[in-house]
Batch of 2 targets.
Target 1
Amino acid sequence: MRVLFLGDIFGKPGRECVKRKLPDIVKESSVDIVIANGENAAGGLGITPDICNSLLDMGIDVVTSGNHIYKKREIYSYIEKEPRLLKPANYPPETPGSGFYVFSNEKTGGRKVAVINICGRIFIENYDCPFRCVDKIVNNIAKQTPIIIVDFHGEATSEKLAMAWFLDGRVSAVVGTHTHVQTADERILPGGTAYITDVGMVGPMNSVIGMRKEIVIERFLTLMPQKFKVANENNWINAVLIDIDDKTGKSNAITRLNSPVV
């Protein structure tokens, strides 16, 4: 099975990148399923029901998120009804939505695939322990399928790498999101788990993590409040392709993908 995992889709430029390039990538790379982080798909902050529906209609099978999932209030009721949009599983249990999704369809050939969304705690929020949370979920899901992909949405590289070692041999992949900067440390760990610290971003590269660079620079220089605006220059897709043995759930390869959208 080949999985395409798209980096954080940032605003309208990111959505346009997916619309224009995803069909070609899926065809050229023989992709079976597509996962994308969509927590910044609405104006660079949050996601709306209409935007999530549009991403699913574009061919994305599961949309993961992170610390901005609840920025748009209209998503509260939607995420309760749409299992393909995930919240971080270590949010308080009273929050709407689910942190994992197990599915099978004609694209998977009837094989069950599990996607888990977890958020880090270092430099973000005081969520429940991501390690204990994901441990319980994996122990349960492993009874249903060996194909398990984890989106670990975190700031600190140490926390992400520790999570990868914690789950090595138990899940197919641990893919880092949140920083919007793709790292060059993709590899297969000894137990067969694919790993990358951060898959990057789908959106404007001539920016500061998606926002207009001039505004962000001004804020750094003056420390004065600034209204951030989504950039729209030099749009790219950052992603990874992961090859998984569908019988064992072990990964055979992980490859970074960087594709300009012209």
Note: Residues 2-260 form a domain with the Purple Acid Phosphatase; chain A, domain 2 fold (CATH 3.60.21.10).
Target 2
Amino acid sequence: MNSGQSALTLVLTADPALIAIVKLSLTVSLAAVAVAAVIGIPFGALIALTRFPGRSGVIVVLNAMMGLPPVVVGLAVYLLLSRSGPLGNLGILFTPQAMIVAQAVLVTPIIAALTRQTIEDLWSEYREEFAAMDVGPVRRVLTLISDAKFSLVTALLAGFGRAAAEVGAIIIVGGNIEGFTRTMTTAIALETSKGDLPLAVGLGMVLMTIVVIVNSLAFAARRAGEMRAGS
């Protein structure tokens, strides 16, 4: 039996080791996206709706941070969480919590930047209407976020895709510990280097399936938003 057939067997029979790795990967990535959404959506909306000195510079930096090098983020989080670091007393280095922190740092700029662009576009469209109705700042933000929900779902899915495919940062802060901090991407890298191709290929199949599903959902959300805007 070749590697592809063995990998398919692992997936179809729900191999416990494979399922445990997939479950951890999804848990970490979803938690990271949730944290990033709580921070990134309000921050992006705030930048979109306020004018302050240096705003253009903040937008440039925010957009640049969408391409943060994962290994640099991993190193920075490692230094923060190490025993000699400022957050070392938390004791979460080489745990799933540390991996969530690293992924959240990577994903937050993506969600914030996409939110900022979406809300700013809507604000330019509705500014005069809000002014005429004397809508307050808080209600303005909530209304625009609600109206942009389909685009924001796309932003969240983009963030999830980045988190699920991440490997460099989470190896550094998670340690790739078997049964504890081993995710799909880190397991694929390790098992390939060990020559255990069936597990690596099986995890690759699952990861590709997740990527296809995420992109399909993002496309559906965009289409729903376009249809709503056009109606």
Note: Residues 96-133 form the longest helix (38 residues).
